[in-house]
Amino acid sequence: MFYISTLLPMLLSAAVASLSVSYHSKSICVLERSSVDFSCTFDYPLYSTLKTTRWFKPLSNQKQDGTQFGISVYHSNTAEIHQLYKNRTAYANQDRNCSLQIHNVSKSDNGMYFFRLEYDHGKYTGPWGINLSVAVLPFRVTVKTQKKNGHIHEGDYVTLTCGTENCTPKKEPFAWFKNQRLIPEATDNVFHIASVSHHDFGNYSCGLKTSSSTSTDEILLDVKYMPKNVEIAVFPSGKIREGNSLTLICMNNANPSVTNYSWFLIKEAKVSHIGLDREFSIKSASQKDNGQYFCTAKNDMGSQNSSVIALNVEVSVHQNVLLTATAVFLFLMAVVIFGLIIWRIQFTSKKHPTEQTPAATVTEEIYENLRKSQESEGKYSTSVVYADLSLPPASDRPSCNSQAGDTVIIYSLLSYNK
Ligand SMILES: *[C@@H]1O[C@H](CO)[C@@H](O)[C@H](O)[C@H]1NC(C)=O
Ligand SMILES: *[C@@H]1O[C@H](CO)[C@@H](O)[C@H](O)[C@H]1NC(C)=O
Ligand SMILES: *[C@@H]1O[C@H](CO)[C@@H](O)[C@H](O)[C@H]1NC(C)=O
Ligand SMILES: *[C@@H]1O[C@H](CO)[C@@H](O)[C@H](O)[C@H]1NC(C)=O
Ligand SMILES: *[C@@H]1O[C@H](CO)[C@@H](O)[C@H](O)[C@H]1NC(C)=O
Ligand SMILES: *[C@@H]1O[C@H](CO)[C@@H](O)[C@H](O)[C@H]1NC(C)=O
Ligand SMILES: *[C@@H]1O[C@H](CO)[C@@H](O)[C@H](O)[C@H]1NC(C)=O
């Protein structure tokens, strides 16, 4: 009695245990037009005979728990196979192997799939079934952060997911692009950025590595950050000349764009606020504009000061030319006036002697000698008189040892009493 009461449940449990269906995956996502594998094994009691095996798919208006059979995707009696799945399935058809392949899947294949076996003493449907989702292109990128307001700030943990409307086929190799450039390290359908920075700002797209036609539209990873690289650009560049117009621009990189600018001038250790626009213009530069300038750029995220630039206005070339010309003119005038003065002094000193000066040249030596001889006299004014004497031809006058031709210069010294 004891024997039977313990043996029967054991036999029963063995019989129950040997009736099973096991699906390898509970839910599967595949790309449309690709093939899907439903890996599956089953068991049934020893000494039983299998009558039918089948995969069925409940219709969309039926219960999805396996109690309503819908259409046959596979059937051991091929005539039972639904038109939609004829020629598209491959059943393992081995002992206790219920694996099924479906080729060229499409959106209409979405749904639950169950394996059911019937043998001579009973029937059994594998519970839970397999939930097949067909990923219909195009892919799209979704961006997620831990924050709820949707804004992405520097330092946030960001996840980009490449998927379709209903699911993502995770087994495929993915390619990610930032501003159309491949990101080599991103090969998964999910791309994590642990601490996002302003460098990550940009347009992202993804797709299957194997097919460029699957690439998505770009999505902007809109990282918000306070102004960076705040710098002053000076236009025109180069030397700043007096009188020229000048524009200083507060360059920066910020997201969102800068809303408030400020300009400061440091002069003699005093900082003054000089402007509120992105540009600071000087209509006509002068030495007064010399000093150190910097700007501040501010957006919702914060503010940043530029580095300081020194402005040094040079006297313009125009003015240099004018100054040089004036200097040259003045110099020439001075020379002319000086010359006139000298000439005048010489003229008056020469006019003093009573008689006109003859054209003949006088050697200094004789003149000096003559003067010296006079100085001793004291009482007398002296003057030198030169005269050319034209003498008759040599033949008409008494011979004289003259070598210089017809003209003889006669020097004479006259003294007269003052
Ligand atoms: C299945 O394929 C065979 C040949 O491969 C073809 O003759 C038959 O028409 C196909 N049936 C369907 C329903 O496509
Ligand atoms: C079941 O059959 C499929 C297709 O023939 C095969 O790939 C798979 O390895 C088999 N599974 C087992 C457990 O034998
Ligand atoms: C795959 O299925 C689609 C319809 O869903 C059909 O237009 C296409 O021709 C099929 N491709 C192959 C290779 O059978
Ligand atoms: C199958 O999976 C999809 C998501 O991929 C889900 O929306 C749907 O509710 C699932 N179906 C069932 C019956 O669990
Ligand atoms: C992102 O794409 C938009 C629209 O195509 C474009 O206007 C923008 O300049 C792009 N941004 C970057 C950083 O490439
Ligand atoms: C920024 O500028 C706006 C006007 O453009 C002004 O209302 C606001 O007070 C300014 N903010 C700061 C912090 O200066
Ligand atoms: C930027 O300049 C302003 C004005 O001089 C000053 O008050 C502020 O502290 C500066 N900020 C930084 C970050 O240096």
TrEMBL record:
SUPFAM superfamilies tied to this protein: Immunoglobulin
Protein keywords: Membrane, Signal, Transmembrane, Transmembrane helix
Signal peptide: 1-17
PROSITE patterns associated with the record: IG_LIKE
Pfam family for this entry, one: Ig_CD22
Start and end residues of each Ig-like domain: 138-222, 227-316
Transmembrane segments: 321-343
Domain of life: Eukaryota
Coiled-coil positions: none
InterPro entries per record: Ig-like_dom (IPR007110), Ig-like_dom_sf (IPR036179), Ig-like_fold (IPR013783), Ig_CD22 (IPR056386), Ig_sub (IPR003599), Ig_sub2 (IPR003598)
Reported function: Most highly expressed siglec (sialic acid-binding immunoglobulin-like lectin) on B-cells that plays a role in various aspects of B-cell biology including differentiation, antigen presentation, and trafficking to bone marrow. Binds to alpha 2,6-linked sialic acid residues of surface molecules such as CD22 itself, CD45 and IgM in a cis configuration. Can also bind to ligands on other cells as an adhesion molecule in a trans configuration.
Quaternary structure (record): Predominantly monomer of isoform CD22-beta. Also found as heterodimer of isoform CD22-beta and a shorter isoform. Interacts with PTPN6/SHP-1, LYN, SYK, PIK3R1/PIK3R2 and PLCG1 upon phosphorylation. Interacts with GRB2, INPP5D and SHC1 upon phosphorylation. May form a complex with INPP5D/SHIP, GRB2 and SHC1.
Protein's recorded name: B-cell receptor CD22
